[in-house]
Amino acid sequence: MTEAVEYDVVVLGGGPAGENIVDRTRAAGLSTALVESELVGGECSYWACVPSKALLRPALARSEARRVPGLAGAVQGPLDTEAVFAHRDYWTGDWKDDGQLDWLDSVGAHLYRGHGRLYGVRKVAVTSPEGEHHILAARHAVVVATGTRAVVPDLPGIAGARPWTSREATSSRRVPGRLLIVGGSVVAAEMATAWQALGSRVTVLVRGSGLLPRMEPFAGELVSEALTEAGAVVRTGVAVEAVVRDGPAGPVTVVLEGGETLEGDELLMATGRAPRTEDIGLETVGLTPGDWIGVDEGCRVPGHDWLYAVGDVNHRALLTHQGKYQARIAGAAIAARAAGSPALDEGRWGAHAATADTEALPQAVFTDPEAAAVGLTLAEAERAGHRVRAVDYDLGKVSGAGLYADGYRGRARIVVDLDREVLLGATFVGPGAAELVHAATVAVVGEVPIGRLWHAVPSFPTISEVWLRLLEAYRG
């Protein structure tokens, strides 16, 4: 029997959420062990946020530069794909986690490489790649931060077609001549933008009515228009029934409902995420393997006062920044309970409650144009029973936008709670729009009254002047 090694906290999963738990618990003076089966830094650092933005930044910068008089003529050629790939590889550390290991050493956390599984109450069993076995016992908390994996639907022929998921789409060193993308969410929209700019002929197949279905409808519409103008094909209301790959390196064919076929050189299935919980020992503590892990506002698993789940795995908000936010909340709660605090601040906007997950969730999509939003859409606010008014403004009519780029196209919307005269949500679509969303996040979280926002004067001439125009439109 392997003797258990004791720590105050054991963290299962070394992505951004797990790393932030380590950071917060170590800062509180707790001994912490981290278990990771792949690269410390997780999906975001190596196959999602970081490499995708490295691929997208040259595409967006070129697009914007082409709209600036005096500069447009200098940026008419194709992207230097090798330089783009080298830039991406730099930001992923060439898919090595040496820098993350240095950070772990600097905070005094102990890393266990290998597959970790819950082993009953307050215990985690780890099997290393070399076959060594360790039992880790947690005095105060075990935190599950194992994240998600891409879902590939079980279509006829899909296994032999070897489709890309987000991992291959962000790490490929070859530009496919023709790229078929199935899906309409952020991964589909961003990867369509990146690979179209790198030279692929992109076709996006969306089962629903449009791209970016979780945002205001105009966001997906503007992104779809821009992709179409760039040469991509965006088709909505279509479903894939089967997939065929012609040989190990041959073209791939998708069969649509009704029998129509489309051929490409690669196929990206951007069709959702599932929790990485199928083999982490949930059954040893009475939970169901493969399920999302339900948590309370403090990210603690109900009925298990020692067990927490942070990040994608709890299904509250599948975004890196929200996972890190949850880790800060849970880390503070773990530290407070370890110190014997008699009561925690778990009320709305309390120090130990992840209120932003449901009331002020921000997101930025790095398409061309960018789309960014926080809080509730108009439809969500109405479904929740709020008495609201949406105020829209053409971003292209803002002086700062016209100076930013000729022919600037975009749109902004705020959703106002008419009973309290505070913002419930805001959406911005346009070049550079991702930098507008944090001001809206502060307004939503702070529940800043419209009358007070009137005194938050935007600098001239910036795109942020849209705030003044939105408030003027609201006041009439």
From TrEMBL:
Disulfide bonds join 44-49. FAD binds at residues 53, 116, 312. Its EC number is 1.16.1.1. Binds 1 FAD per subunit. InterPro entries: Class-I_Pyr_Nuc-Dis_Oxidored, FAD/NAD-bd_sf, FAD/NAD-binding_dom, FAD/NAD-linked_Rdtase_dimer_sf, Pyr_nuc-diS_OxRdtase, Pyr_nucl-diS_OxRdtase_dimer. NAD(+) binds at residues 183-190, 272. GO terms for molecular function: dihydrolipoyl dehydrogenase (NADH) activity; flavin adenine dinucleotide binding; mercury (II) reductase (NADP+) activity. Keywords: FAD, Flavoprotein, NAD, Nucleotide-binding, Oxidoreductase. It comes from the Bacteria. One of its GO terms (biological process) is 2-oxoglutarate metabolic process. Its cofactor is FAD. Belongs to the class-I pyridine nucleotide-disulfide oxidoreductase family. PANTHER family: DIHYDROLIPOYL DEHYDROGENASE, MITOCHONDRIAL (PTHR22912:SF151), DISULFIDE OXIDOREDUCTASE (PTHR22912). This is Mercuric reductase. The gene is merA.
